Amino acid sequence: MPGFAPGVERFGTALLVGTLATAVLFTPVVALLPAALVAFVCYFFRDPDRSPPDARIVAPADGRVSVIREEGDRVRVGVFMNVTDVHVNRAPADGEVVAVTHRPGANKPAFAKDSDRNERVDIDCGDYDLSLIAGWFARRIHPYVTEGDSLRQGERVGHIDFGSRADVLLPPELGVEDVAVERGDTVRAGETVLVE
């Protein structure tokens, strides 16, 4: 469906049927609650177009930068997606998908340090890695890419249902000093520059 991430039909249709049934069986006033839930689902699954700037690495998700840390000789930048953020994730840079790996795990809040052990999908793009991490309420990660796919910067790579985190493990030649954002900054997927 244009303008919406996959999944809007699954959640929205059931709620719409519930809204109509409630309006028929009870009163239109009682149907306001399920109607509000339909509106929320449509809002949550929105998928606006984005235009990547001329940059080396852009944000993979809408939300707030929650992680900037060194891991060995690499730097990880993580973006926490609140339930009100767009949850469609985008390629932070051009690349080729080397592997897509699903790892089961816990469902801790995505902004917590323990969330590193959460269920996740890791997308290895050779030069960089992208991790889609489920949160406490998010139980489904939907990657759109498979091994061998060529990615363009800002291209849609997947989405996570209802609250989560997306991390980029930067190429080894980039350090913390190259990161153009700070913890707490608000970013937009495919548009906010992480590395010039």
Automatic annotation (TrEMBL):
Recorded superkingdom: Archaea
Q: Which UniProt keywords are present, listed alphabetically?
A: Cell membrane, Decarboxylase, Lipid biosynthesis, Lipid metabolism, Lyase, Membrane, Phospholipid biosynthesis, Phospholipid metabolism, Pyruvate, Transmembrane, Transmembrane helix, Zymogen
Which InterPro entries does the UniProt record give? PS_Dcarbxylase (IPR003817), PSD-A (IPR033175)
GO MF terms listed in the record are: carboxy-lyase activity
GO biological process terms, alphabetically, are: phospholipid biosynthetic process
Q: Where are the transmembrane segments?
A: 20-45
Q: Which NCBIfam families match?
A: anchor_synt_D, PRK05305.2-3
Protein name listed in UniProt: Protein sorting system archaetidylserine decarboxylase
Which organism is this entry from?
A: Salinirubrum litoreum
